[in-house]
Design a protein that fits this description.
Arc Repressor Mutant, subunit A; 2 domains; 9 strands; DJ-1/PfpI
């Protein structure tokens, strides 16, 4: 029987722990082609049972090497140094070829153990820049729901943990079983797109500078031709000065910023209006419906219609 360790470390968060427990610890062997289910163990710092997971057998960090799959829950303190005993246990398990999963900010724990070095990984989009800064050897992707690197897997924020856990069931027991579990949980078996769909527009620079005023003006004129030259003139800067200021204050160049803002506007229009996709494309300065669909697919991994279905507010 496949042994799954749910690591409930000292800063573990309840939601992701509960989602993983719901998928792996609830016996649904009637859905399994083998007639068996996972053997789940709660792993705690001291090896004692955890109040969140009553009824589960318990184990300590030293026992991680004996597990088949290790699920590290998210941490409420991603910038804190994890327990050295946990890091040692994860490294030992990795060396023995165990499958290790980091849910949401649990990726910081895996990164601290060195398990994400040279790999692609994800975490909650709000924490992705910090993960990349603290661990430059990790290829952090903030626009996906989860990353499967074989024996090391990571998920994006919150409910993306459920997406990854269901994917593991499909991988272990087949699509029919994975879809059956999703149906029991009233959850999609597979969500299209990535977490880029859920990222809020970044705020403008907090200043009364000409740049802030220029960008505010540009946001109101996205349906018009906007060029670097036009923005630079309005800000009273040269093209080079504008590029330097924008990289320093908003983290991107002028053309990238314009494109990002147009996509954000298109998303807002799809969420809050009944306007046609063609009208949304024109209002956001993205041209035709075909162009809008192409940009949505490239940036968000979904069509405008699918996005509207998910996020429509009224």
């Amino acid at each position: 029987m496949h042994r799954v360790a749910l690591v409930v470390h000292e800063s573990a968060m309840l939601l992701e722990t509960a989602l993983a427990a719901e998928v792996f610890a609830v016996d649904r062997s009637e859905l399994s082609p083998t007639g068996s289910w996972y053997d789940v163990v709660a792993v705690t710092p001291d090896g004692l049972p955890h109040a969140w997971l009553p009824g589960l057998a318990s184990a300590a960090y030293d026992d991680l090497e004996e597990m088949d799959t290790i699920v590290v829950s998210s941490t409420s303190q991603p910038l804190a140094e994890p327990d050295p005993r946990l890091l040692d246990g994860l490294r030992g398990a990795h060396d023995r070829g165990r499958r290790i999963v980091g849910l949401c900010t649990g990726a910081f724990v895996l990164a601290a153990a060195g398990l994400l070095d040279g790999r692609v990984a994800t975490t909650h989009w709000m924490h992705a820049p910090e993960l990349a800064r603290r661990h430059p050897q990790v290829d952090v992707r903030a626009d996906v729901l989860y990353v499967d690197e074989g024996l090391v897997l990571t998920s994006a924020g919150k409910t993306a943990a459920l997406d990854l856990c269901l994917a593991l069931v499909r991988q272990d027991l087949g699509a029919v079983t994975g879809n059956g579990v999703a149906r029991r949980l009233v959850a999609p078996a597979h969500r299209p797109g990535g977490q880029a769909q859920f990222i809020a527009p970044p705020a403008l620079p907090r200043s009364d500078t000409d740049l802030s005023a220029t960008l505010e003006w540009a946001r109101g004129h996205l349906d018009q031709p906007l060029t670097v030259e036009r923005l630079a003139r309005r800000a009273g800067l040269s093209r080079r000065q504008l590029a330097r200021r924008m990289h320093a204050e908003v983290g991107t160049g002028p053309l990238e910023w314009i494109h990002r803002e147009r996509l954000f506007l298109a998303r807002q229009l799809l969420e809050m209006s009944d306007a046609s996709v063609e009208h949304v494309a024109a209002r956001a300065g993205l041209g035709s419906a075909a162009t809008l669909r192409r940009h949505f697919h490239q940036s968000l991994g979904v069509t405008p219609t699918a996005y509207r279905t998910t996020f429509r507010t009224g």
